[in-house]
Amino acid sequence: VTGPVGSTVDGARRAYIALSCLVEPGNRDLGIAVTQDGPVRTLDRLLAGRLPGRLLAAAAPRLRAEHPLRIADAASAEADRLGARLVTPLDKEWPAQLADLVRISFETDRRIDRDTFPPLCLWVRGSWPLADVLQRSVAVVGARAATEYGDHVATELAYGLAERGWTVVSGGAYGIDAAAHRGALAANGTTVAVLACGVDRPYPAGNTNLFERIAETGLLISEWPPGAEPHRHRFLIRNRVIAALTRGTVIVEAAARSGATATLRRATQLRRAAMAVPGPVTSAMSVGTHEWLRRDDTRLVTGWQHVLEEVGAIGTDLAPVPRGPEHAHDRLDAGSAQVLEAVPLRRVASPDDIAANAGLAVPDALRALGVLLAGGYVVQRHGGYTLAPAGPPTRIAPAGERHEAKRSDDTAPG
Amino acid sequence: VTGPVGSTVDGARRAYIALSCLVEPGNRDLGIAVTQDGPVRTLDRLLAGRLPGRLLAAAAPRLRAEHPLRIADAASAEADRLGARLVTPLDKEWPAQLADLVRISFETDRRIDRDTFPPLCLWVRGSWPLADVLQRSVAVVGARAATEYGDHVATELAYGLAERGWTVVSGGAYGIDAAAHRGALAANGTTVAVLACGVDRPYPAGNTNLFERIAETGLLISEWPPGAEPHRHRFLIRNRVIAALTRGTVIVEAAARSGATATLRRATQLRRAAMAVPGPVTSAMSVGTHEWLRRDDTRLVTGWQHVLEEVGAIGTDLAPVPRGPEHAHDRLDAGSAQVLEAVPLRRVASPDDIAANAGLAVPDALRALGVLLAGGYVVQRHGGYTLAPAGPPTRIAPAGERHEAKRSDDTAPG
């Protein structure tokens, strides 16, 4: 592999991966180039030295050592080795909502918000398709130095959301983040940790057991390749992904002028629901949340019910986030689509339950399930049915096959 | 006194007093009549039986026993006996802002908000002119079953406001109300308790010492004559006065669907600042405050600084509440008016201090002070100057003279 990058889907996918390895995530110059020219032409321009000088300088060290396609292939091999997978905007499981970051990147002040462009590639550990897991998700974030009160509230909030089928997204940090992940896990729900370092060695090490549990039932995500250190500025860059992936962000505790509110600011810019849990005005850990609650765009929430009022109000309540012009359901007859709606995601249901939920007789539901099974919309597990993973196995690369095997062990949450 | 009520100022004043003794405060039928015809014609119509039947029925028992002017004179005598005074809309110290209650009485749903018309007369215990004391005032109210947290926050809030020259108004109840009064007293500030019973026997009796301290340095106010019991419905009627007298209302703690938020609702209707202090979401005593903070019209405040941001923003920051078309200042030359602005209310200042505050040379300030003294705008105390009480002694009735004597003892708060 020494020639030009090529224009096949595979070439474009490798270009995304290579670009993501060459330059720090969110980079404005690269983001503009990719938005205008796509990954393949951008990589060609990079190789030809026809991009802003500081971008060329940033990419130069790695580029001198290796051809971009080799970098991409090495990354894929590394992902395999780690039991992870690489997901790019070309993959079916890519969360389309990340594209909203392009808009705010052009709208916000470039001197303050330099690195707000969407990720070009995500490193993912965990079995379930990214887009499906994040379809109904809420970010619960806050201070590392949380109080007992904050820990309690974050846990309860996440438990309630997870119990109702919502994915709880957080940053894996000590304090509120960890409490949110734990609350979701306690409810046998799904939780996603978006890291500011490689998925091989999630930070902080003190949360290692927690990260393992998240990887088993939910997802560990990072924009950075394995080995990347959790530098301070990476947390701020990472926060835009937490805000963009979810329908809304809740901060539970935050000190004055703290980084814990950065995700909330992004959520506001992205026109996602911005929410905050109040606390005692005597607590330093609630000064930041109260500052935000004094703004008109932040809603006070005291529990999961309030959160659902906010995130359910975006679009048609719990409608799935649109993922593109063509939706799988569009190709189905009304009866099959009705049954498909009744098949649970990440949980196995019996034909009887599905029929009841769809409001159909069991024979009619079984007939529809046959259609859905044949079309690859649903899969059978232990005599029941569950939604098929979003991407075909060939797309999720070798790691995906391992996950496919894992899924048949029925480690599905909930 | 058996003839018609007459049309002198004294007659009108006595009519206000009589009407206030005959019918429960806030009464809609009476309020409409007085708004349209004034107190004298309304009393004439009452005596002639030309008012709505239920209003006649309400007034009948007392009217059968005594002529209205006798009732008024008996009330004045009773006030004297108790060391109180009667203040009507015709008296200079009447707080003009109460007239805003007329507007909301016509705007609000009459089935829910029957009794929202302004008081016709206030029973007042305490030395200072009502309008002056309430010119810069904030209501701090909340739950009787307050937590330690709520008590602490209410005390701090009131202390901070009082220390900065703001009068703290509350309802004299246990819990948040008492904490607010105490905080203001601790700062040597001014506090006003608006009662739902007679000023002779303020309720609850457990706060008797507190009420005595309030009467000494601030004001005890009631719409009800001495002997009136604190019936439950009277608290709700009373709340409109707390909201109307002040530039804004802060609730510190309130249970779900509690009466403690009723004052806040009135403040909103009156377009006063509506504020609430958050608390732990785990506290039942903050459920009501959080409910209100989820509304767009209630501002979260965590301390007096936030409160001043809200109430200072009404009109030109700390501009006095207009009291009528003609203002005392209007008759002064620019220099004297400038010096008058520099003379403190309820505190004595030296000519040097006044000159410095007015930005004038001491001789110029002294010349202006001579004019102001001659015009009755300021009075001399202990070699310094303070603003003259709003109403001339003859207006404040016998009790007023006693207070005048008291004032020369210089018991003025901080």
Q: Which helices and strands appear, and what pairs or packs with what?
A:
The structure is a homodimer of 414-residue chains.
Chain A lengths: L8 H14 L5 H20 L5 H13 L2 H15 L2 E3 L12 H8 L14 E4 L4 H5 L2 E5 L6 H16 L3 E4 L5 H11 L4 E5 L12 H10 L1 E4 L9 H14 L2 E4 L10 H8 L3 E4 L10 H7 L5 E2 L3 H9 L21 H9 L8 H8 L3 H13 L3 E4 L2 E4 L9 H12 L6
Parallel strand pairs in A: 3-4, 3-7, 4-5, 5-6, 7-8, 8-9
Antiparallel strand pairs in A: 1-2, 2-6, 10-11
Name the features:
homodimer, 414 residues, alpha/beta, 9-stranded mixed β-sheet, two-stranded antiparallel sheet, 46% helix, globular, disordered C terminus
What does this protein structure show overall?
Two copies of one chain form a homodimer. By secondary structure, chain A is of the alpha/beta class. In chain A, 46% of the residues lie in helices and 10% in strands. Chain A contains 17 helices and eleven strands. In chain A, the strands form two sheets. A nine-stranded mixed beta sheet of chain A has the order 1-2-6-5-4-3-7-8-9, sandwiched between helices. In chain A, strands 10-11 form a two-stranded antiparallel sheet. The C terminus of chain A is likely disordered. At the A-B interface, α7, α12 and β9 of A face α7, α12 and β9 of B.
